[in-house]
Amino acid sequence: MELSSYQAVNDSFDRRLVYHVGVDCGFFVELNYMLNAMLYCLDHGLRFQIYSEDANFGTGTGWTEYFMPFCEEVHEPFHRQYNFHRPPSWRRILGRAIRKKSPGFILWKMKLGVKSLQGRWLAYRTYGTHVRLSQDVASDPARHYHIPALGINCSYYEAYTMLARMVWRLRPEIVQKVSDVKDSLSLPQTYSGVQIRRGDKATEAQLVSCSRVIESLGAVAGECVFVLTDNYAELERIKSEYPQLRIVSLCRPGEQGYNHQSFTASGQQEKKSAISRLLVSVDILLHAKKFSGSITTGPSVFILKQRLAEPSVQAVDCADEMLPSVLTLTVDRRAAISAAYLSK
């Protein structure tokens, strides 16, 4: 999809939605939500705009710290408090309340309902018209998307991939970092890639063993494997257990696992450096000939969604035939499917 074509269609809509990017999740979960919102807007004839000045992955600028702009940004600070991710349905909230035997989830949902009304009023007062917010987005992965002006007449995954590749336009300095990293690692033209997540992922999903991920590649002796991992000890273990492979990574000595709470509280330079390294790593993985990852991790899901049809790209904790229906589920449901598959 050409950026200019998307912008022309997007700007032609009178009604609009302002999407708050970088609310409270990891970068690639936030990116996934944003792409779903973009599809929702195209499908419903809404002009897509973003607010990202307080993005949890940024240092005050937001989206354009790392990427080239693709749509108009707004800057009104009320979006920080009143523009948020769509909460779970009442059915899920009531189910949680019953299981926990506590009204806490119900009260939380009611509080968000009041904040949403306040947000819509503030948006109307600011812009002089009804404006939809992030909480109004409802993703429908089963939908067939038909947007003639953009040549879209395809499934959710095909449309998602078109948008993902369009917005994935890294700033020139990060593109240069990708080139520099490839040179410094002597990365060959053909290589494989994996993601191995540790850190706070253990609080929401069963961790996947390194050996399971590496062996799923079917790599031959001498093959170069780029590893996206947040734990240096795991990287050293892989190098020790698979000396026949050439293992390369941007993981640094001392890294013991990503913790989202610690990351959001880190200093600006530390945060920007970490996100830049993550984007460089994922850009490298997007171009790997073979890739293995997990259905429970944001970067892997982002890659799997775009390369779903490629036999050499796989999730190690989900059956191939289930993958299309699993990748769009909430993380708790994906974690349950992953755990059941790994226990076989």
Q: How would you describe the overall organization of this protein?
A:
With 344 residues, this protein is of the alpha/beta class. It has helices at 3-11, 27-44, 79-82, 90-100, 104-127, 156-167, 172-184, 210-216, 232-241, 260-264, 268-286, 298-306, 323-326, 331-342; strands spanning 16-20, 47-51, 131-133, 145-147, 152-154, 192-196, 224-229, 246-249, 290-293, 313-315. A five-stranded parallel β-sheet has the order 8-7-6-9-10, with helices on both faces.
What's a quick, concise take on this entry?
The chain has helices spanning 3-11, 27-44, 79-82, 90-100, 104-127, 156-167, 172-184, 210-216, 232-241, 260-264, 268-286, 298-306, 323-326, 331-342, and strands spanning 16-20, 47-51, 131-133, 145-147, 152-154, 192-196, 224-229, 246-249, 290-293, 313-315. By secondary structure, it is α/β, with parallel strands linked by helices. The chain starts with a helix and ends with a helix.
Return the structural class: alpha/beta
Q: What is the overall silhouette?
A: globular
Percent range of helical residues:
40-55%
Q: How many individual β-strands?
A: 10
Order of strands in the sheet with the most strands? 8-7-6-9-10
Features:
alpha/beta; five-stranded parallel sheet; three-stranded parallel sheet; 10 strands; globular
Secondary-structure map:
Elements (H helix, E strand, L loop, with lengths): L2 H9 L4 E5 L6 H18 L2 E5 L27 H4 L7 H11 L3 H24 L3 E3 L11 E3 L4 E3 L1 H12 L4 H13 L7 E5 L13 H7 L7 E6 L2 H10 L4 E4 L10 H5 L3 H19 L3 E4 L4 H9 L6 E3 L7 H4 L4 H12 L2
Parallel strand pairs: 1-2, 1-3, 6-7, 6-9, 7-8, 9-10
Antiparallel strand pairs: 4-5
